[in-house]
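Hi U.,

Before I forget, here's the chain from the pilot set. I'm dumping it here mostly so it's searchable later in email.
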Amino acid sequence: MRPPSSKRSGKILFLFDDEFNPAPTFDNMKFHYLLNEMKRRGMAVTWLRVNGGHREVTKDDVRFDSVKLKGPKLLFSMELFARLISYCLRNKITLVYFDEWLYFRNRPNSRFLTVLALKLAGARPIVDRRDPYLDFQVAQGKISEHTMKAVLIRLQERLMIRLSTLTILPSVAYQKLLVDQGHPPRKLIGIFRGVDTTKFKPTVDGKQVRSALNVEGKFVIGWFGMMNKHRLIEEMLLPLAKRASNLWPDAHIIIGGKGPLRKLVVEFLKSNPDAPFSYVGLIPYDELPKYIAACDVTLCPIQTNSHFSLHSNWLKIVESLAVGTPVIATRTKSSIMDMRSLRGVVWTGKTTDDFVHSINNVKKDKLYWKSEALLQAERMEEYSVSYNIPRLVDLICKNGI
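Structure:
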């Protein structure tokens, strides 16, 4: 790991279109780790909010600034284009990084014009596609792959990769997919963010959670994450909860998270009050390890009919293993290319019956699977934040400064 530098190495701009929030939240965790690593190295980082109203301030060696767009909405794109060029030239910015989730997530035109403006201003754009926008929208059923809208966004994404210095993808499998589609390999890198092993570790105790939920002595099955369509909430998770008491009389299912399909979970609870099932809402990040540790096994079912589902890495798999809890997960391209060496994972299909069969196997040999997960928990470096975030910052610096 590179030692901290006392000399600032260049002017870096992080772009956002929302409120300043340097504290880690559910949505900006990756940025939080990147920012801390850059601060540790003494790098000059400015957090710029586009269309914000904040005045320039400096806190903990990080500069916060904003560009206020004042023109009519019809001219928003052109004003954004002009102001970004002006800001980068005036401040002699050498590198600009933005995360597709945190910068005009649902405005692909604005992201494309941003990359074009940065290129014209002489800055090097780095785009983090941790959940590639169009593939994600297709997986959610919000955009059809074969519509004109999808064709235009796909063209914009192709041009953005050409114009950008580097495009960061969530897995090696995703990187290979884009290379196979004809994108230049030197412009792409697939790096998994990884798990924070200072929080998710095998010494975490889940007994307090078990006691609070009154599931001591139960076989506890957990699911945690964003309740989006590709996570098979309606197709697999809730049908499994409905059958659980007949399949495993001593079982209890814990679900935690938020998202568009949360209402289905709440409605299920109302309709099935006697089901062995607890919905615990969105769990604070610092509390999540205890909930995972309270489980005998966690589940990670995924659709297999979209690029996004097949090629993304699933953080909940490594978070579970890091605390020593085995996982049952759908087999995908990333499971083969990025996670094949993981112990303590049962790779299976995507149907309820696939997961029932795998849960039976884990339940039958619970001690073996627990020991496999604990062995993996001691070998998480390759899948950790402390390993992958410095690698990512090294690449950003190499390509951008």
